[in-house]
Design goal:
72 residues; mainly alpha; 47% helix
Length: 72
């Protein structure tokens, strides 16, 4: 599952870069066309990062606690 999240994160990062370098919208005559919604892409990037995706592909480790029960 983390591989899928990492792949999607890379795709969203590439989309963000494309929007930032190529423009989010363009005009033809008096019509303005939008390629993609930058705010939506950034929102998805945040969700993927919160879900454990990483850009470098390294998995996030979470700290785990253990409960010890002492018995006689």
């Amino acid at each position: 599952m983390s591989d899928v999240l990492n792949m999607r994160l890379k795709q969203y990062m590439a989309a963000e870069t494309a929007i930032l370098t190529g423009g989010q919208s363009y005009k033809i005559g008096n019509r303005t066309l939008t390629r993609a919604d930058l705010a939506e892409i950034r929102s998805e990037i945040s969700k993927l990062l919160a879900a454990g995706a990483s850009i470098d592909g390294a998995s996030r480790t979470t700290s785990r606690t253990k409960q010890v029960i002492l018995r006689d």
